[in-house]
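Quick review question:
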C-alpha cells in the first residue's frame, strides 16, 4: 500500500492539556443552577485537548466532522462590524480570525497527521469521521486517512459544490470542497431515510408519463431518493441570515445532512476545528450532544454566542492550559444596580452597550467557576447590545459577577457585593 512520507513525519505522544472548567452557560437561564452540562466547548490547541480527552473518550465519539485550515497560505480576518451595510466591505471592521499560513506542505502535514491519529482513537467502533478540505491538501489527507483508518474504511468522497464570484481568469473557477468520509469499522451509522431528498420534477414526470421509464422499475417517488455524493448548498453569503462574521463559516444545511446521516439522537458529535460552531448548532438542533474545540478565542466566543442565541441546554466552557489568555478589555464597564421591590436591575451605560458584543451574569459568584444564568448577545445587524437586565432578588447571592466581551474580542469582569449595594440603596 502506498504511504505518504515527508522528512519530518513522526508520531510522538502529545502532552495532554489541563482542561479547566471556566464556566457553565445556561442559555436564557434554562436549567440554572442544577442541570449538569452535557455539551462541551473547549478553547485550546486540539492536539493537547485530544490527548487530555483520551482517557475519558477513547472509542466513545459517534461522529467527528472536522474542517481544519485548508493549506491556503492565507490569513482569514473575522468581520466584527456592528450593523454596517454588508455590501460595503470598506466599512467593515476586521479582526484576527485565524491563520492558514505554513512554511511548506511538510509543516502543514506535521499539524494534520497527529490530530487525525488522535481523532481516530476517540471514534466509537461504529463511528464516522468526515474531514472537510479542498484542492490544496485533500490528496495528501486521503493518503493519511488510508494509512490511519485502512483503505477499506473509506466510505465516500463527497463533493460540496457552491457558486459565487471569483477573480480567477486563467483556469476554471474552483467552486467545490471535498469531504472525505471514513468509518472506524465495517459496522457504522448511516441513516439512509434521514437524508432522503425529493426526486426532481423531471424524474417524477417521466415516471408519470411512461410505464417503461426506468426499464419498468418504479422507484418509491414519495419516499424520495438518497442524495448522490455531490451536494449543492449555497455558501454562507454576505447577506445570509446565518452569517456570524467568523471566516470560512460552513452552511448549517451541510452540517445538518452530515449529522443526520452519520449519528443518532442523543449521540456525541465532535468537531476539533469548530470555528464559528456550525457543528454545535447542527448537533444541538438535531438532538445530539457536542464537543467542540478551537484554538481561537474569537471562534469560541462566536460559537458560544450562537448557542446562546438558539437557546440550547447548558454547556460547559473549558480553557486548555497552558494556553492563551483572553486579552483584557481596554476599559472597565460602567455598571449600575438598582434595587426594585422584587428584582435587581443591572444597567450598562449607553456607551458600553455600543462597544460590547456580549455580557453575562453569575448571580451567585463563588469566585471560581462562572455560572452564567443570563446572557445578552448582540445580533450582527444591531449596533448595540441590550443594556438592562433584571434578575429576581431570590436568585442573587452575596456576590454577583458580570463578564463581558468587547466587539474587539477583549474580555473583562466586574464583581459586585450586592448586599453592600442593597445597604446603600
Ligand atoms: C476552516 S475553520 C472552521 C470553520 C467552521 N467549520 C465553521 O463552520 O465556522 C478552521 C478553524 O480551525 C481552527 N484551528 C486551527 N488550528 C487549530 C488547532 N491546532 N487547534 C484547534 N483549532 C484550530 C481555527 O482557529 C479555525 O477556527
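Suggested answer, residue by residue:
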Amino acid at each position: 500500500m502506498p504511504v505518504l512520507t515527508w522528512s519530518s513525519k513522526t508520531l510522538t505522544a502529545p502532552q495532554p492539556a489541563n482542561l479547566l472548567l471556566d464556566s457553565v452557560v445556561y442559555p436564557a437561564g434554562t436549567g440554572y443552577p442544577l442541570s449538569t452540562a452535557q455539551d462541551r466547548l473547549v478553547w485550546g490547541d486540539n492536539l493537547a485537548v485530544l490527548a487530555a480527552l483520551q482517557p475519558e473518550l477513547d472509542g466513545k465519539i459517534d461522529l467527528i466532522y472536522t474542517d481544519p485550515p485548508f493549506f491556503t497560505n492565507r490569513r482569514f480576518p473575522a468581520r466584527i462590524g456592528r450593523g454596517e451595510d454588508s455590501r460595503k466591505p470598506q466599512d467593515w471592521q476586521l479582526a484576527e480570525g485565524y491563520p492558514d499560513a505554513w512554511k511548506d506542505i511538510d509543516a502543514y502535514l506535521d499539524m494534520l497527521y497527529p490530530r487525525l491519529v488522535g481523532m481516530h482513537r476517540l471514534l466509537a467502533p461504529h463511528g464516522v469521521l468526515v474531514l472537510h478540505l479542498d484542492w490544496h491538501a485533500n490528496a495528501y489527507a486521503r493518503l493519511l486517512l488510508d494509512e490511519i483508518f485502512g483503505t477499506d474504511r473509506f466510505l465516500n468522497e463527497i463533493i460540496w459544490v457552491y457558486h459565487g464570484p471569483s477573480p480567477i481568469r486563467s483556469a476554471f473557477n474552483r467552486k467545490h470542497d471535498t469531504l472525505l468520509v471514513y468509518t472506524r469499522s465495517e459496522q457504522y451509522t448511516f441513516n439512509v431515510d434521514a437524508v432522503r431528498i425529493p426526486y426532481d420534477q423531471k424524474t417524477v414526470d417521466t415516471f408519470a408519463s411512461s410505464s417503461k421509464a426506468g426499464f419498468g422499475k418504479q422507484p418509491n417517488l414519495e419516499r424520495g431518493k438518497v442524495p448522490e455524493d455531490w451536494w449543492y448548498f449555497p455558501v454562507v453569503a454576505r447577506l445570509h441570515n446565518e452569517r456570524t462574521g467568523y471566516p470560512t463559516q460552513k452552511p448549517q444545511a451541510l452540517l445538518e445532512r452530515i449529522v443526520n446521516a452519520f449519528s443518532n439522537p442523543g449521540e456525541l458529535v465532535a468537531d476539533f476545528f469548530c470555528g464559528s460552531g456550525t457543528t454545535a448548532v447542527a448537533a444541538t438542533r438535531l438532538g445530539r450532544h457536542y464537543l467542540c474545540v478551537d484554538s481561537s478565542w474569537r471562534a469560541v466566543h462566536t460559537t458560544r454566542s450562537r448557542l446562546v442565541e438558539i437557546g440550547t441546554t447548558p454547556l460547559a466552557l473549558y480553557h486548555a492550559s497552558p494556553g492563551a489568555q483572553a486579552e483584557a478589555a481596554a476599559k472597565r464597564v460602567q455598571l449600575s444596580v438598582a434595587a426594585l421591590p422584587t428584582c435587581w436591575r443591572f444597567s450598562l451605560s449607553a456607551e458600553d452597550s455600543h462597544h460590547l458584543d456580549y455580557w453575562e451574569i453569575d448571580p451567585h459568584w463563588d469566585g471560581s467557576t462562572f455560572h452564567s444564568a443570563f446572557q445578552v448577545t448582540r445580533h450582527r445587524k444591531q449596533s448595540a447590545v441590550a443594556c438592562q437586565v433584571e434578575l429576581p432578588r431570590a436568585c442573587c447571592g452575596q456576590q454577583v459577577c458580570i463578564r463581558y466581551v468587547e466587539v474587539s474580542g477583549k474580555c473583562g469582569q466586574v464583581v459586585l457585593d450586592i448586599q453592600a449595594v442593597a445597604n446603600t440603596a
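Why it works: The pocket of S-adenosylmethionine is lined by residues 45-46, 67-69, 98, 246, 248-250, 273, 275-276, 278, 293-296, 299 (CB under 6 Å). The first helix runs from residue 46 to 57.
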